[in-house]
Amino acid sequence: MVLAGGALGAVLWWNAGGWKSTPKLAAAKIAAEQPITPAPIATEARGASTQPATITTPLGSSPTSSGVTVKETTAPALTGGAAGGTAGGVAPGLAHAGPTVGVGVGGVAPGLAHVGPTVGVGVGGPWVSPSTITSASPDALTQGKTLKDEGKLVEARTLLNAALLSGGLPVAADAEAAKLLMREINEVLVFSPQRIAGDPWVDEVTLRPGDILTKIANNIDVPYELILKINGLADARRVRAGQRLKVVKGPFHAVVSKSRFTIDLFLGSPGGTDAMYVTTFRVGLGSNDGTPTGVWRVSPENKLKNPTYFSPRGEGVIHADDPENPLGEFWIGLMGVEGQAVGKTSYGIHGTIHPESIGKTESMGCIRLLNEDVAQVFQMLFETRSLVRVIE
Question: Taking the domains of the chain in order of start, what are their residue ranges?
Fold first, then answer.
């Protein structure tokens, strides 16, 4: 099967311990790199600007949870509740800037730091800058669902995301329920043309004559295919000057859990306090613990549609769209930058012709997904900017 817009027709082979590729630009990508042509109406005759596309919200700022006051202390952070109150306070959302960061839980009253012998409970963690992530109340899941049902999607997602990242949903079933609600919310906030006021992760672009779709995508660290998908467009050649497009401020990052066989997609830092959970897919991993942990970066010029496979196991050349091609329809090359992954370049994220292997350890070390799932991940991860963290 070839996706709309044409196949890349890339060649992928194993050489000197790594996957190599010779990509060819597809018609869709060529179209995306063409300047935007004026709309049928005479926009330039009416004095339209020829400046680059207008972004209605400035890019580059880290979205934060609204309405949360962040306090900071330089005292040693709480490490499991050994000290409270005077060591930095225990108000929900209090970020400690000491050697170890703890999220304070408890307090005489919400937002009130202890000053007497009574101490709060500190949950230890690695150092991070003070953030606006709040600790979750016991009713965060219920409150989030209520907000979602009321149509307050941005508020619901903010609440659920804070609960998820702060560890305020310690019961696994509650955490998964929060993720499910957020996935449903993000189908609207992230993946639909609808833009809701107050969403800090979304902008709107007004196309002007001469704009190039790939350049717009590069400026916000997302693949141009995602812009097309979000706005219900099948062909980059159909966009015109004056058209307003919804865009998501990237880059996306991913966290792969080997024990859970999942890949979680985030905006913001993967696993960091400024992250926003987006969605999850099931994965298959390497046999004999063959998928190294650590941090990987999406390789430059190594995201391929319909790759040709040159088997390192003597199976010969398997061409694109061959039902025996084990890579499926997409390849996202990875290069290791931290942990066990350092220096490794022969790994990637790809599809599969064996859907029954998802949730198992049967690959040669790569991260495999169902073909329909890897198609979505391909539209989200951006070359050189997206990181993939593999954890146990």
Answer: 12-27+251-391, 140-189
Sign of CA dihedral 176, 182, 185, 187: negative
For the domain covering 12-27+251-391, report its CATH number: 2.40.440.10
Instruction: Give the strand pairing for 317-318 and 308-310.
Output: antiparallel
Q: Are 301 and 383 in contact (CB under 8 A)?
A: yes
User: How is 14-48 classified by DSSP, letter by letter?
Assistant: EETTEEEEE----HHHHHHTSBPBPPSS-TGGGT-
| Tokens coding 116 | 């007497």
The model carries a pTM of 0.71
Could you give the residue numbers annotated as active site?
Answer: 350, 366
pLDDT tens per residue, range 17-72: 444 444 444 556 666 777 776 654 322 222 333 344 434 333 333 333 333 222 33
What is the spatial distance between Cα 304 and Cα 345, in angstroms, rounded to a whole number?
15
CA 16 to chain centre: 31
